[in-house]
Amino acid sequence: MFSRIAATSGKTALLAAGSAIGGASGATYLLSSANAEKNVANCEAEKPTVLSLLTDISSRVSKIEESMGIQASSTSAAASATSGKKYAGQSELARRQTTASANYGIDIVLGAQWGDEGKGKLVDMLSQEYDVCARVAGGSNAGHTIVVEGKKYKFHLLPSGVLNDKATCIIGNGVVIHLPSFLNELDALSASGIKYDGRVKISDRAHLVFDFHQEVDGTLENRLGRNKIGTTKKGIGPAYASKIQRNGLRIGDLRDFAYFEERFRNLADHHMRAFPGLEIDVEGQLEFYRNISERVDEMMVDTIEFTNKAFKDGKKILVEGANATMLDIDFGTYPYVTSSNPSIGSVLTGLGVSPRKLRGIYGTVKAYTTRVGEGPFPTEQVDDAAGVGNNGVGNHLGTVGAEYGTTTGRARRCGWLDIPQMRFSTLINGFTSINLTKLDVLTGLEEVKVAKAYKHNGKILTTMPADLKTLSSVEVVYETLPGWTEDISTVKSFEDLPVNAQKYVLRVQELLGVPIRWIGVGTERLDVIDQGEGWDLAITDSEDEEDGLEYKSA
After folding, report:
1. Active-site residue identified among 124, 144, 396, 418
2. Least crowded by CB within 10 Å, which of 214, 277, 376, 402?
3. E strand map for 79-203
4. From its phi and psi, is residue 550 left (phi > 0), alpha (psi between -120 and 50) or beta?
5. Is 116 a catalytic residue?
6. Is the peptide bond before 378 cis (omega within 30 degrees of 0)?
7. What separation, in Å, do the N-terminal and C-terminal C-alpha atoms of the chain show?
8. Are 443 and 412 in contact (CB under 8 A)?
9. Helices in 275-392 by DSSP H: which ranges?
10. φ, ψ at 24 (rounded to 5°)
């Protein structure tokens, strides 16, 4: 399976490298090279690694740069990186390679499933080395729980990186903010001894969620009856609706309270007319916002300018995604989705940065699958009342994994890891590495399964179907692997994992074609195996690649 990917990826990577250094002519030079074709052919025979492919590409780029007279010496490049001066004399590709090695750029942690994957834990771990941590989409419907020395911290609007006392935390323009909840979150931090003064910045362009947005959210959900979406009733959808209808209010409006008051009265009147019976204490709400306006103003900045200046100054920036790709308003299981884009695109629109500034894209995925609320869930394992259906797998995952929502407290639906869904998520986001969480939850199961394909009408689907009727009726093709019973919560290296746990991780990695860098083995803050940036993903053939079935698009 991966031998073909290697050949394709080799050509694609060569084309990209050529384009980066000299437009179409550079790309043509690379692809027309007889040696390049020879090396691609060798991929089939020698089964190279990703690193060996990149090394070969780097060598070819160097030769082309040299022939064009633009190659900088390794000595001058090193000196430039050390001194922090501009990368004079280097091509754009060489500059990016140098800055990447200097940990320069914006890294992103995204949810790759239906949310609750454990993004906050990785962000907390990574943020100790970052200067800026940011939220870019969603609102208080997100929930991250961090355990530090046995103490739980729950975040809904704040980036988990706030626990790093050296990090500045940004709430980007793409986030919708319920200020009462946000200020309560800050007060809880203070009560826990966490100092945040001067470290929390709110975008003056971020839209506000009001209490009546939350009431409307609940009303709309209740009207749906059996067809309910499963919203958190935090007012996120109605707030984004106000934004799109262009009658919403933004954080920056608080600086001119007369203007804020006028727009608030109009917005409240609009909602009371649209929802008969809705009562809004307009005067009480205005008094509340008047009282907090000064406190909010102290945190209010132009986060677009702030973030881009931080990047220019060489600061390390980390974006903490909320929700997940399969809840994306465009790419998720619509209409059972959230009201924003919690995929890679939200980083650009919700923070105001160029895609050229992005570096690592880290997809967070549980070793199994969960989702909260309604909507199709192909690999769900539903047990009977005694918790023993499907060999008790659903009950095991939910109980051992403590699968209850941080925001709502609702029990999460549980099932096996879904590779077709993960491939779709990987395709959209372009993950550079995977953060595999909660591997320890699978401990104790005699066997573990991985969904590696969807079958519909006797044919294997090659993509995630948009039609929910199709998705709800697919037959899941599983691959079964042996389980393990050994406790892995204290394991610190991949080699020390039980053999069957290693096999599981490697098989998932092979099926996705993306390196698994982090592996979660326990609930504590540091219960994570980090294989480091120097990992190597061997390209191998899948023995069961040909299944004799006809493949088709959804």
Report:
1. 144
2. 277
3. 106-111, 132-135, 144-148, 151-155, 168-171, 176-177, 200-203
4. beta
5. yes
6. no
7. 21
8. no
9. 282-297, 303-312, 345-351
10. -65, -35
d(CA 431, CA 413): 25
Among residues 116, 124, 217, 253, the one annotated as catalytic is 116
User: Quick one: which of 412, 444, 441, 414 has its CA closest to 520?
Assistant: 441
Q: Cα–Cα distance between 385 and 405 in angstroms, integer?
A: 21
Angle between helices 282-297 and 257-274 (to 10 degrees): 140
Residue 389 burial (10 A CB sphere; 0-12, 13-18, 19+): middle
- Structure tokens that stand for 450 in this block: 């991985």
Q: Please return the burial class of 85, using the count of CB atoms within 10 Å of its CB with bins 0-12, 13-18 and 19+.
A: exposed
User: What Cα–Cα distance (Å) separates residue 51 from each residue in 100, 443, 535?
Assistant: 15, 32, 9
Pairing of strands 433-437, 447-456: unpaired
* b (16+ CB within 10 A) / e for 289-321: beeebeebeebbbbbbebbbebbeeeebbbbbb
Contact (Cβ atoms closer than 8 angstroms) between residue 418 and residue 151:
no
Residue 47 near residue 540, CB atoms below 8 Å: yes
CA quadruple 332, 370, 214, 202: dihedral positive or negative?
negative
Using alpha carbons, select from 428, 429, 482, 421 the residue that is nearest to residue 452: 421
The string over 218-245, giving b where at least 16 C-beta atoms fall within 10 Å of a residue's C-beta and e elsewhere, is eebbeeeeeeebbbbbbbbbbbbbbbee
Q: What is the rounded CA–CA span in Å between residue 268 and residue 274?
A: 10
Written as one letter, the residue type at 353 is V
Q: Tell me whether strands 459-461 and 433-437 are parallel, antiparallel or unpaired.
A: unpaired
DSSP assigned state of 407 = T
Kindly tell me the burial class for residue 348, based on how many C-beta atoms sit within 10 Å of its own C-beta (0-12, 13-18, 19 or more). middle
Q: Which residues lie below 8 Å from residue 454, measured CB to CB, with a gap of 6+?
A: 378, 420, 460, 461, 465, 471, 474, 475, 476, 477
Q: At CB < 8 A and 24+ separation, what contacts does 500-503 make?
A: 501/439, 501/442, 501/443
Distances (CA, A) of 432 to 223, 331, 513, 517: 42, 19, 10, 10
Walk along the chain (554 residues) and give the pLDDT tens digit of each residue.
Answer: 433 333 334 433 433 344 443 444 444 333 334 444 444 344 444 556 666 666 777 777 777 766 666 544 443 333 333 333 333 333 333 333 333 444 578 999 999 999 889 888 888 888 888 999 999 999 887 666 777 777 777 888 998 888 888 999 999 999 999 999 999 999 999 998 889 999 999 999 999 999 999 999 888 887 777 777 777 788 999 999 999 999 999 999 999 999 999 999 999 999 999 999 999 999 999 999 999 999 999 999 999 999 999 999 999 999 998 889 999 999 999 999 999 999 999 999 999 999 999 999 999 999 999 998 889 999 999 875 554 555 689 999 999 998 886 666 778 999 999 999 999 999 999 999 999 999 999 999 999 999 999 999 999 999 999 999 999 999 999 999 999 999 999 999 999 999 999 999 999 999 999 999 999 999 887 899 998 875 544 433 344 444 444 444 44
Strands 459-461 and 447-456: antiparallel
Please state, in angstroms and rounded to a whole number, the distance separating the CA atoms of residues 100 and 358: 10
